[in-house]
UniProtKB/TrEMBL annotation:
One of its GO terms (biological process) is coenzyme A biosynthetic process. It comes from Caenorhabditis nigoni. InterPro entries: Cyt_trans-like, Depp_CoAkinase, P-loop_NTPase, Rossmann-like_a/b/a_fold. This is Cytidyltransferase-like domain-containing protein. Keywords: ATP-binding, Nucleotide-binding. Coiled coil: none annotated. Residues 101-243 form the Cytidyltransferase-like domain. The gene is Cni-Y65B4A.8. One of its GO terms (molecular function) is dephospho-CoA kinase activity. Signal peptide: none annotated. Pfam families: CoaE, CTP_transf_like.
Amino acid sequence: MTSKYGLLVLNSKNLQKLKQLLTTAAASLSSRLYVRFNPDTDRTDDLVSKIYLNSANFCPKIDVRLVVAEIAGKIDNYELIGDEKYEKSSGKSEKKYKKVVLGGTFDRLHNGHKVLLNKAAELASDDIVVGVTDKEMIAKKSLFEMIEPVEIRMKNVVDFVEDISGEAKCLTEPIIDPFGPSTRIQDLEAIVVSRETLKGADAVNKIRNEHGMSQLDVIIVELVEGNDEILNETKISSSSRRRADLGRLLKPTRQVPRGNGKPYLIGLAGGIASGKSHIAKYLKEKHGFDVIDCDKLAHTCYEKGSVLNQKIAEHFGKDIVIDGVVDRKKLGGIVFSDKSKLRELSELVWPEVRKKATEIAEQSTARVVVLGKAQKILNFEVVA
């Protein structure tokens, strides 16, 4: 029988058995493992990173939290992992700063995030201010469509920080610029960054200086290293977790009766390099679904003598179509120099693609037909 919560108390001796202890936790717990150093053990940044990295490898399904505050009273019942008993510290630890700030996307809160948040919790006695990126700030991230809503990400940050930090409060806010609260709140004292975002901290201090605000101490934390074979990454990242979620059912399916014998249609959409072709290939090879590539289908609509070519001639002039074939160069000169003309071409092309895709799908004997790159027949994007 597994317990929901566990407590692992570390000292200089049992640190040598860390991997074994985490493996035990993975087999014994169902939810969360609190890790606490006994007072005689030095808490170093390298050691914190080591604990989180090993937890990712040896108990990946357990939410590991390295607490800064006293553990007593945080949870009602917990299973002790290992033989080391918890010793309450003799006095209240002094924090170096009152208010600390940091920022990030914090999607699918992982151990790399926890290292940063742990450092902030170690340093701040009053407030831990966290800016959580939203809107334009996440639009260029890999698989940004799969990023959790900002409200969920902020809630997860607050839950984690206040769970490990004791008396310090966690204040979160969505940010749509690179700086957020770091250049707005006067009495901040330090900023926690990874080495990759150090330039951002320098920019923050430059802006604060220009506005007559105090300079922030810059606390650099090394990111937790891991391995992601799909993305070829050596750092634990949210993008690798989003990639791992591709093809995974994120919510229950709803059965829709198809009494007319026609196949179900699935529209496969996403940004550039988001894995559309990979998923389409998987569905075809593993499940026998038919796949219609809407990009390729669009090009067939330009074939000699097609209905689309006739419409283009009527709309843009008969000199655009010669002997039933569209002069792509001449048409491109018109539509790519005028956005309104490009939109007009889109409104001619994609309804034809949609019509053709529907005809092909209705003739399919497969149970399911996948419309690959279907965002183009929904959003009227042009393939010239």
